[in-house]
Design a protein that fits this description.
Radius of gyration: 40 Å
Number of helices: 9
Largest sheet: 10 strands, antiparallel
Distance between the termini: 127 Å
Shape: globular
Oligomer: single chain
Number of strands: 22
Structural class: alpha+beta
Strand content: 25-35%
């Protein structure tokens, strides 16, 4: 007993033996247990993801894993002058055999020799950089689509969703026609179309006066819902220095061919366009019997009209005819000659590219070549010339005759169409 007494003295007697001591002990255990639970809950709260909390959801960016990623945008390429489609295919990984197979597979659907330089092609590639599809606009309304299928190519011609809407514009000249139409929200090309329509009656470079006015009804084209340029001018009136000029479009029901006539049935077109280039092309040298040649430094005749324009500008046939020659002519460079009715021949000199062949029939306004600086030339321009029965004439000085007038059997139908178009002009629709 003497040995156990010190031990008994170290333990408080109330804590070990009384009911109150037992209660205190249980209380301490309960408090400790609660503390452990609180610590565990706090740890779990800090460690577990908080995505269930709405506020945290909004604060933290969500991570998404797309199952079908959007295909990359197509690479747009144009065939530069002096290169070929094969060169362009090679740049995009086509070897010789693939390029040949591409040509052969597409041939039944579209002749790739008709691909126009500077017009864009669309190349669609996969993640490995291999071309899986190629698209090319055949014209404003259709495009060629070629899909890679294994080791072959599947071609098809696909039509765009296309529609035309009738529109109206009117304005007054304050300086030039282009600015008058731009104020109406129209593009420059519409001014060029209108100027060309009246080109043989009005010189839009020299004859315009402040206060001259115009009205026109025309078509706007839309491709896949987006504006895609202008269609036809259906009716137009231009008042120049107090004199009114009018043009009404009429489509022959039997042939589908169309032309613009004045109210009496005379065609507003003449035998030749005034210029083989757009209306705005400046004249840099005129027809003359004596001119100091800029290269040879001697006085000699210049039997043409020079139009200044950038290399690559489209050159148009000024009249219907047959291509008589496409050749290199020394100082004249690349040259096209076209034979027309009534003994006329037109010539287009210093071209960078020729787009027609000898013997080919061409229509007025058709693109036949591109402006260049070939031959004896100090810079890019077009030298345009006309002969009649072998003698040179001044293209700007001759008053050419109108082309064929309205066919007599359609006089009544034309009168009805003129009345309809006049009403649209007057109503401003």
């Amino acid at each position: 007993m003497d040995r156990e007494e010190p031990f008994l003295r170290e333990v408080p007697p109330l804590a070990r033996r009384t009911p109150t001591g037992r209660r205190l002990r249980k209380l301490r255990i309960a408090v400790a247990f609660i503390v452990v639970i609180l610590i565990t809950a706090t740890a779990l709260f800090l460690l577990l993801p908080r995505g269930a909390d709405r506020a945290d959801k909004e604060a933290a960016p969500a991570i998404s894993f797309p199952t079908h990623p959007a295909p990359p945008a197509p690479i747009l390429e144009a065939i530069p002058l002096g290169t070929t489609l094969s060169d362009l295919l090679a740049l995009h990984g086509f070897n010789g055999a693939e390029a040949n197979r591409f040509y052969e597979d597409v041939k039944p659907v579209f002749d790739l020799r008709k691909v126009v330089a500077d017009r864009a092609m669309r190349f669609f590639m996969d993640e490995a950089g291999i071309v899986q599809a190629v698209e090319y606009d055949v014209d404003d309304r259709r495009y060629l689509r070629v899909d890679r299928v294994g080791d072959r190519f599947l071609p098809g011609i696909i039509a765009y969703r296309f529609e035309s809407k009738q529109s109206y514009a009117t304005g007054t000249i304050e300086d030039i026609l282009i600015n008058a139409l731009k104020k109406q929200g129209e593009k420059e090309v519409l001014a060029l179309m209108m100027a060309e329509l009246f080109a043989w009656d009005v010189d839009f470079n020299t004859e315009l006066r402040v206060g001259d006015s115009f009205r026109l009804v025309f078509e706007r084209n839309f491709r896949e819902g987006a504006f895609a340029g202008y269609g036809e001018i259906l009716a137009a009136e231009f008042i120049c220095q107090g004199k009114a000029y009018q043009a009404f479009r009429f489509v022959y029901p039997d042939t589908g061919e169309a032309d613009h006539f004045d109210a009496t049935g005379k065609s507003v077109r003449k035998e030749f366009l005034r210029s083989p280039l757009p209306y705005a092309a400046p004249i840099t040298s005129r027809f003359t019997s004596s001119r100091l040649h800029p290269i040879y430094k001697v006085y000699r005749a210049h039997y043409g009209v020079d139009f200044g324009a950038p290399i690559g500008t489209p050159v148009r046939a000024t009249g219907d005819g047959v291509v008589a020659a496409t050749e290199w002519q020394g100082g004249a460079g690349r040259t096209i000659k076209i034979r027309h009715a009534n003994g006329y021949t037109t010539m287009y000199l210093h071209l960078s590219r020729i787009l027609v062949e000898q013997g080919q029939r061409v229509r007025m306004g058709q693109t036949i070549g591109r402006v260049g600086s070939s031959g004896a030339s100090t810079g890019p321009h077009l030298d345009y010339r006309i002969q009649q029965n072998g003698a040179y004439i001044n293209p700007l000085g001759r008053r050419f005759n109108p082309v064929a007038p309205l066919r007599k059997e359609y006089t009544e139908a034309f009168a009805q169409e003129v009345a309809r178009l006049r009403a649209l002009l007057d109503a401003g629709k």
